[in-house]
Specification:
- Helices cover 54% and strands 6% of the residues.
- 48% of the residues are buried.
- The protein has 14 helices and twelve strands.
- The chain is mainly alpha-helical.
- The protein has a domain of 215 residues: Glycosyltransferase (Alpha/alpha barrel).
Amino acid sequence: MFDRGIDKAHLLQFYTDQIENSFFRFWNSAVDRQNGGIFNCFNNAGTTLVSRDKYTWSQGRFVWIWSRLYELSKRGVLSLDMKTIGEDLARTVRFLEDHVFMQNGNCVYLTNGNGNWIESIPGKGFDTSFYADCFVALGFSAYARAFKDRHYLDLALQTYRRINKRVDQCQLRSEPYPIPNGYKFHSVPMIMLNVGEELALTLETLDDKRAKDVESESCRYMDEIMEVFYDDDQGRIIETIGPDGVILNNVLCRHVNPGHAIEDMWFVMELAKRKDRVEYIEKARGAVKWAIKIGWDSEFGGLFRFVDVTGGQPQGERTGDVYETLILDTWDTKLWWPHSEMLYATLLSYSLTGDNEFLSLYNRAHEYAFNTFPDNHNNTGEWVQIRDRKGKPINKVVALPVKDPYHILRDMILIIELLEQL
């Protein structure tokens, strides 16, 4: 697509059209305009709604997406119905505020369509995943920025501080990816970096003096990622560290999650740019290249979900852990989100470094993603998000039993904003 530089006008038009005429069309029809939020428990094709239950994780993500679409529409970048989007958002933040907070301050993981709590694992309680809290904080933060709403800014900050306390006290529950005792998962500082970074920007935008403290905490998580989970020898991100800081020869410690590494490295690059941490930008760009190199399927194209540290099918000793089972069972699937993250991460890397290799990597991601994932058969406007190694749709739950409203639209929004800045 690009031989020399970026055709900004072409890309802007392309992604604007993708949002306005495809993805917004799908998700606008999924909004619950009675109670707030969205219904997103669809089959993989997006043609059948199989449940009206609401995962808090997805509802918070929806608020983030709708808030950012509202902002882009307000600036005239997108031509969407701002009035309807604003009404959808008001209902949804009220739904979350009224229905997902427990007495201890944690967020419930799952509710029905009316907001009644459901135990996702019978007998295990309602607050089974701190990720739900993280995405509520992200959603409230984006809403507060879009509407200059200090009430939801305070709620976002309260939620974030509650999560921070649980992280520091090692009191995390993390369904659907429970962390084995003694292990450290890269996903924890990764999501905390993202939440803190977003919240600090909102606080700064609203001229709130608390921005500096939150940004300092974000830098702490960035340091943890780049000093603890970054492997200087290989230039890669380690997903799992065993007890006592040992990288064991088991599947958990040997596996690589290319999409995770790519996504987190743009988190790092954005904060490192603001803090003038050039050395982290350099490390992150190398980690993006490494993840794509080790994760790309040279036979059928696309990124594997998981690979071994040496490439190919994950290897190592078995522990019987539930996450290990997920790794081995789904390693060669081709999922929507790593490819959308690759689109943004490669363009951001190019903009920060001028390295033309990232244009080639962007072109590779663009060609594969838009030739593989769009639903050209049913014309839903969304992608068929879960596919096998050859790119054929499969009906398989790989995380939550939902169609996700987040990664593709988030990356398209961020690409549009990046192109505006170039």
